[in-house]
Amino acid sequence: MYAPSMDKTQCIYRIIQTDDVDVAVTAAPRLQMRTLLFGAWVVFYVSVLLVARRMWVGKYSRSPLTRTLFTNAFTGSDLNAHGVQEWYRCSPDLLGEKIQPLFVQSQLDEETQAFLQRSVEKSGWVFTQLYHSVFSTIFSPIVSRTSINGFLGRGSMFVFSQDQFRQLLQISPDWRGERLLDLGAGDGGVTEVMGSHFKEVYATEVSPPMRWQLQRKNYRLLEIDEWPKTGFQYDIISCLNLLDRCDQPFQLLRDIKKSLVPGTGRLILAVVLPFQPYVEIRGRWVRPAEHIRLKGTTWEEQVKNLSDDIFHSVGLEVEVVTRLPYLCEGDMHQDYYVLDDAVFVLKPQEVDPN
């Protein structure tokens, strides 16, 4: 029954208004339930990742060496402990008479320590790592891990510090060269370590997101088949952890040799040991067309084999070699990742006049 003072329009408006309230009252619990379910799902997902991270880190991913490193880092004690030095340990007498005097002992320095501590901090950014994890899960079936890291701005690599770079080349802080070429430069993090010593810095990279980052840093990008055909040569060519992911490693080394400035040009080559070459082709990992087979199982044995056989076969000889950890920023599951590197400075062999 309508109130006697209301006209027809007012009555219709009151009925419509009443229906809207009923709809709103009915929809509100549904919206609250959906919000509650979504919030519960996020909490559950984060909890699972954190538990998995704790289990993984506690049981699998951190060796006593790693725990020693970060215990020392956070307590401010000496980082040059025996466990840390395992990353840099070498038995020079096992390298052979030819390579033994060329070995340079490296050690953990402030720049390397700073990279490790930044990696630990970033790994603890829960919501950032959660976003990275979801993004990677969604796009990993169609996009390479390198490109995903490029999109997210994560996964920076560390091979050597500026001091270690200068020690390898035996140069002073104010030394300057003309041209540097960094093959497979990634996001340019390692390129920056070397680039301050050169007037012109060139780089190659196949991942589009990584190329964008290199362009933002104003490096001169070259295509992967363009750099040997530019018509000029380079004072330094760096090929860091690329040899085991290259389809034609022997041809790559020969092209590098031809592209170095005669007499003074040098190649800085980092190789992950033990050597396990694979190439990614259309999402599948396959053996390269030119397969380098190294003899020996220890770091020293494989370094000796590389020096005596592989480099010699393409006309290169070792000037300096050292052992360094190849570091990468971590994620939800691990603070950082580390592989074992042999870093060489190579020069073209002198032609025997006889």
UniProtKB/TrEMBL annotation:
Pfam families: DREV. Keywords: Membrane, Transmembrane, Transmembrane helix. The chain crosses the membrane at residues 35-52. The keyword Hydrolase does not apply. InterPro entries: METL9, SAM-dependent_MTases_sf. Gene3D superfamilies: Vaccinia Virus protein VP39. One of its GO terms (molecular function) is protein-L-histidine N-pros-methyltransferase activity. It comes from the Eukaryota. The keyword Transmembrane applies. PANTHER family: DREV PROTEIN, PROTEIN-L-HISTIDINE N-PROS-METHYLTRANSFERASE. This is Methyltransferase-like protein 9.
